[in-house]
Design brief:
The chain is of the alpha/beta class. Among the domains are: 135 residues, Rossmann fold (3-Layer(aba) Sandwich); 85 residues. 40% of the residues lie in helices and 19% in strands. It contains 15 helices and twelve strands. The strands form two sheets. It has a seven-stranded mixed β-sheet with strand order 7-6-8-9-10-11-12. It has a five-stranded parallel β-sheet with strand order 2-3-4-1-5, with helices on both faces. α3 links the parallel β2 and β3. α3 runs parallel beside α4 and α9 packs across α11. The longest helix is centred in the middle third of the chain and has 21 residues.
Length: 409
């Protein structure tokens, strides 16, 4: 039996629903660790005394189950695996392989005596279509690739050598990302090849297989543009103008919007809308896009230099989003606050920079905070080892904050 690295944060999120009749949907970009997470949940149930006979695991990508592609076949398969009325725990991996699976899953849910967990990797399962068909009958646990703290833990779990210098480990994490399987490879070339293969699988299996894209070349160019410009403020008109004027490619607005939505549904990119702090209103049409994992960008580019501004913003964005915070980009007059973050009824203002070693840079990063009139907490995240004390702002080292699994307070 293979050893599984337990992602404890996600286990804590789902444990309260183990015996709930709500369908547990595990979502996230392909290869972020959903299947291994299901195995972690199964092991957790066994430790709690659940008999192995009461746990049913079906991976529809495995031999023996690949022929199950219709709702009737799935219904028959599940019924055979649940021979009695005893409480059962049903796990189905790659559920998207079955067309119209929702009524089947919901039917077993309504019969009771079964707790259902499902995962899938395509943009259909992860989009609003699932919500429409299973409204009020499921909860979603959204997973991300490893954050830096999990990266360090899993590397140690696998028996890999860890540098005494966390900054060196963080640099490697920035370049090769947090897809769990990359940690099995020591050669940087192998890591890059693996990530490229993941992106290709997302494109072929999660997008083209389930979405009709007439102009594949145009879609790829739009995808590359969004990926290469992550962390930059943009809107549809700016992108349309770029392709028309710079690439000589007139694109219809509806087509562009559809392409971007496909990338969002596949969990490759995440939209971070802009928010005007003074008016307390979202700014329509203006947003930034961040990546599920930085390796998505770096694996596709020959230039290996890191643009630390957007890269560090991306690290902070994905970490806090994975911890349940809602993220927006703040605007205060002509100044920008990197993030306005909300969890429950609490707000936080966040600036992110590589360093504030120079006074000019420090003043620039603190300037948005000085314009904010309320008393919600303010955070400045940098890579600086020496932390500043100024104006009540909490200055945090990004590496240490994430490595320790800290929360905003």
């Amino acid at each position: 039996m293979k050893k599984i690295y337990n992602r404890e944060y996600y286990l804590k999120k789902i444990r309260g629903f183990y015996d709930s009749d709500l369908i547990k949907v595990i979502s996230g970009v392909r290869r972020c660790g959903k299947s291994c997470f299901l195995e972690s949940v199964i092991n957790d149930l066994k430790k709690r005394g659940v008999p192995e006979n009461d746990i049913v695991y079906i991976n529809l990508d495995m031999r023996g189950f690949r022929s199950v592609t219709t709702a009737d076949q799935l219904d028959e398969l599940i019924a055979a695996k649940l021979p009695d009325s005893k409480m059962k725990y049903l796990f189905i991996d790659e559920i998207q392989n079955v067309k119209d699976f929702e009524p089947v899953i919901n039917g077993f849910r309504e019969e009771g005596n079964v707790s259902i967990f499902i995962t899938g990797s395509n943009s259909y399962l992860l989009s609003g279509e699932l919500a429409t068909k299973l409204t009020g009958r499921y909860i979603e646990i959204e997973m991300f690739p490893l954050n830096f703290g999990e990266y360090l833990e899993m590397k140690a779990f696998l028996g890999k050598t860890l540098s005494d210098n966390k900054a060196e480990e963080f640099d490697e994490y920035l370049r090769f990302g947090g897809f769990p399987k990359t940690l099995e490879f020591d050669d940087p070339v192998d890591k890059e090849l693996y990530v490229k293969d993941v992106i290709e699988q997302i494109f072929e299996k999660d997008i083209l297989k389930f979405r009709k894209i007439r102009n594949r070349s145009l879609f790829e160019r739009v995808m590359n543009y969004i990926i290469n410009n992550f962390g930059a403020t943009t809107n549809l008109q700016n992108i349309l103008r770029y392709f028309r004027n710079e690439e000589g490619l007139p694109i219809k607005q509806a087509t562009l919007h559809g392409y971007i939505k496909i990338l969002e549904n596949a969990k490759i990119i995440y939209k971070c809308p802009r928010f005007d702090i003074k008016s307390r209103k979202s700014l329509k049409g203006e947003q930034k896009y961040y990546l599920a994992d930085l390796s998505i960008c770096f694996s596709r580019n020959v230039d290996r230099r890191i643009n630390y501004g957007p890269a560090l913003e991306n690290i902070v964005y994905t970490y806090l989003t994975s911890r349940g915070y809602s993220m927006s980009v703040g605007r205060i007059g002509n100044l920008e606050c990197d993030f306005i973050t909300r969890k429950n009824m609490d707000y936080y203002y966040i600036q992110v920079a590589m360093t504030i070693a120079e006074r000019k840079t420090e003043d620039r990063e603190y300037a948005p905070f000085e314009k904010i009139r309320d008393n919600y907490p303010k955070y400045l995240f940098t890579l600086d080892p020496l932390l500043q004390r100024r104006d009540g702002v909490k200055h945090c080292n990004i590496i240490n904050f994430i490595a320790k699994g800290e929360e905003l307070l």
